Amino acid sequence: MADERNQSHDPITGRDSGQAEHGEVEPGTATSVTFPPGEAAYWEEVCVAEPYFVTGRTTLDYLPAYELGWTSYTRYGNDVDACENLMANDWALRKGGSTLSWDEARAATRAGWLRAENAKAYITDGSATYEQKVETLNDLLENARDGALGFREAAEHARSAGLKQLFKRRADTSTRAATELQEQLRHLGGKIEEGGTVVGAAHRVWTHIRGLFGGASDETMLNECERGEDASMGRYRKALKANLPHDIHALVLRQFEEVQRNHDMIRSLRNQARAENKLKSDEG
Question: Which of 212, 259, 269, 266 is nearest to 234 (CA)?
């Protein structure tokens, strides 16, 4: 994939080319990294709608976590799961005025890391053909519609109020994503496939998952919803490699990151539910 980004400015380091060779700092180097102002502005806008945001906190509590995640990607440059202990140790030194414990800051830190990682991993030269653009957008539209239906059903069957709220929020973001994708298709003058793309992999996954919701435990529902988000992320990754125009690519990347963060939250809650069920089983 060709990279036609402006090479005078790097999205990870925030440096211009005169500050570092080629304007790039490779992951794993010891070079100091700055948190781009644009990242802070992004999180100030979306933070309160994130699935891990706790009512009563403020965006200022979470901003140091986003910064830690972003800069840690360049410092450690490995896998986010493999580097969690390093970031946990760093949090005590770099949290500033944040009142969050590491457990409370963990999800936001991972979100910051993934934003930095994605900025490097997913770039575009805008060379997709008209047919490729329309096909890709319709595939994501089917994915968003199916996810909205699946999570709305999950919310109806969830036993705990917290899960109902999480699933409903994800259904709402999926519905919004579908609306945004439809608008892009209309702007292109492309045909909107009202019935989907017939054999989409994520569609088959969610059709099966929804049949498992009735009477399911929270752990089972979380496990199945995680599987649905895995399939969704696969479709977004494919779209992000399709060399879409820069404005559409940016939209798709934002939606992909929303899926990533929700997947992270679902996996964390699933692991928690699994541990609690195992403890009950051991005690019984």
Answer: 259
Sign of the dihedral defined by the CA atoms of residues 234, 236, 265, 114, in that order: positive
Q: Tell me the Cα Rg of the chain.
A: 20
| Structure-block tokens of residue 174 | 């999926």
Residues 115 and 257: beta-carbon distance below 8 Å: yes
CA 39 from chain centre, in angstroms, equals: 15
* Phi, psi for 9 (deg, rounded to 5): -140, 130
Smallest Cα–Cα separation from 258: which of 66, 75, 47? 47
Partners of 57 in the beta sheet?
55
Closest CA to 225 of 211, 209, 202, 238: 209
Report how far residue 128's alpha carbon sits from residue 248's, in angstroms, rounded to the nearest whole number: 11
What tokens appear for 76 in the block?
């450690």
DSSP state of 130: H
Q: What is the pLDDT of residues 119-174, one digit of tens each?
A: 999 999 999 999 999 999 999 999 999 999 889 988 988 888 989 999 999 999 99
